[in-house]
Specification:
- With 468 residues, the protein is mostly beta strands.
- It is 12% helix and 42% strand.
- A 16-stranded antiparallel β-barrel has the order 2-3-4-5-8-9-10-11-12-13-14-15-16-17-18-19. Strands 1-7-6 form a three-stranded antiparallel β-sheet, with no helix packed on it.
- The protein starts with a helix and ends with a strand.
Length: 468
């Protein structure tokens, strides 16, 4: 115990000495070619509260299963609260700590769709999780400059303000969210400020490693430059499909991700090419069907789960700014995975095509407002659709049978930013200006759960978002 206390004191003294040294050596008000954080003290980099009220319409439903949309419609509310902290220990080392709390529930218990309509919702597998504050992210970020040029970074969630090397090697490790570092898109990556549908703020054919809340332990290593970057990330997989408990042995179960980002020329075009492979205790749809035929029962993918199974896939992600300093632009995603291995961590999509755009409110003298419209078309592999048609269930889908068709989603939103008169009136609101946003949102889904016997269905929502 004495040795542990002594080590803790030495670590605290080392961190303090580094921070003091860096504070004396780095003045962000002075022009410097070296990376320089604005402060070497623990810093609040963001805070947010998001409330969503969503209504699901009634739908045609000649039959239904345990994981079907409620045919009578539903109305639910969700709340999320987040507090995000950062600390620049040195010019090249940062630590981050995020806490969040989720309350409420999604419509129809957040099942019955591959592209769920509220991106802030905790999924069905986490229904028993306590509604308390929890640690969302907790990680270290290390940066090694490779050239003297620096770039200015503004304060944002999980981003300390200051300057960073424009060309660098970067390492992150700890409790992370894989979609923070992969498949990002300027116009479609945040369910709290942009599109709410899962298949529009992410590539749903990318079955990325995560617990039910969307987080996992892992590490990301990358080369970053203004024209291109390459990142590799490895994360722990859940023990069970859509489960909260994570594996503890990376050799036995992990998600490997590799992404090349290209941003050539002055057009602002960004292209991201993603490949991934998951290794986990998963089942094969064809073998689950074979076992069911031998037993004369409905197939159960969990009955075929074995260690060492692999799932792989690819994604292409494009963003194209058009006007208004990039605030008006379009995007597209294409996703594919092998489809033979069970959907395990994100949602039940094997093929994805999505596209849409964002329009700046500067065209009608509302410079901070945004309007967005997009379409997503999702599909299943042959083994996956045969499994559902035979009465099998995943963790989101299971109507008891299936008359297959692509799930088709359309979403339209208008985000209005309201003025806050106290911004700039004091040092607090100068440093932490408050954003207040209200967003009406509409979604239309054909063939919910890939089943053309059911639906169509409509979703209306109002989102209220506060952000520091």
């Amino acid at each position: 115990m004495r040795k542990r206390d002594s080590n803790a004191r030495l670590l605290a003294a080392w961190i303090t000495s580094i921070s003091v040294t860096q504070a004396l050596a780095c003045d962000p008000s002075v022009q410097s070619e070296r990376p320089c954080p604005e402060s070497n003290l623990p810093t609040l980099v963001g805070a947010q509260y998001t409330f969503i009220s969503q209504h699901q319409s009634r739908l045609t439903s000649p039959y239904q299963g345990a994981l079907s949309l409620d045919p009578n419609g539903d109305t639910q509310q969700t709340h999320t609260i987040g507090l995000y902290l950062g600390w620049a220990l040195t010019r090249w080392a940062q630590i981050y700590l995020d806490t969040e709390k989720f309350m409420g529930a999604g419509v129809s218990n957040s099942v019955g769709l591959a592209g769920l309509t509220n991106g802030d919702v905790v999924r069905e597998g986490a229904a028993g999780l306590p509604k308390v504050f929890y640690i969302a992210r907790q990680y270290v970020r290390l940066m090694l400059p490779l050239a003297p040029d620096t770039t200015r970074m503004e304060r944002a969630q999980d981003q300390l303000p200051g300057t960073e090397a424009a060309m660098r090697l970067e390492l992150k490790f700890g409790l992370l969210a894989a979609n923070d570092d992969f498949d990002h898109n300027r116009y479609a990556s945040s369910a709290r400020t942009q599109f709410m549908n899962w298949s529009l703020w992410d590539n749903t054919a990318w079955d990325y490693a995560a617990d039910t809340r969307g987080y996992t332990y892992g590490a990301v290593f990358g080369f970053v430059s203004p024209r291109w970057s390459l990142k590799y990330g490895a994360y722990l997989m859940p023990v069970r499909a859509n489960g909260q408990k994570l594996e503890d042995a990376p050799r036995r179960a992990r998600g490997d991700n590799l992404e090349l980002t290209l941003s050539p020329g002055q057009s602002g075009t960004v292209i991201r090419l993603l490949a991934y492979r998951n290794l986990a205790r998963m089942g094969y749809y064809r073998e689950a069907l074979q076992i069911a035929a031998e037993r004369g029962a409905a197939p159960d993918i969990a009955a075929d789960e074995r260690e060492g199974r692999q799932k792989y896939g690819f994604g292409v992600n494009v963003e194209q700014p058009l006007a208004d300093e990039g605030e008006t632009g379009v995007f597209a995603r294409v996703g594919w995975n092998d489809g033979k291995t069970e959907s395990f961590a994100f949602t039940e999509v094997d093929r994805l095509l999505s596209f849409g755009g964002q329009l700046s409110g500067s065209h009608w003298r509302r410079t901070e407002d945004r309007a967005g419209a997009a379409v997503a078309i999702e599909g299943l592999s042959d083994p996956h659709r045969d499994y559902l048609a035979a009465g099998g269930s995943g963790f989101l889908l299971g109507d008891g049978t299936l008359n297959y068709a692509h799930e088709q989603i359309f979403e339209l939103y208008y985000r209005a930013e309201l003025p806050w008169p106290l911004n700039g009136s004091s040092r607090v609101f100068q440093k932490y200006p408050l954003k207040i946003q209200i967003t009406p949102d509409f979604q239309y889904v054909r063939n919910p759960g890939y089943n053309q016997d059911r639906g169509p269905v409509r979703f209306w929502a109002v989102r209220f978002h506060l952000e520091l």
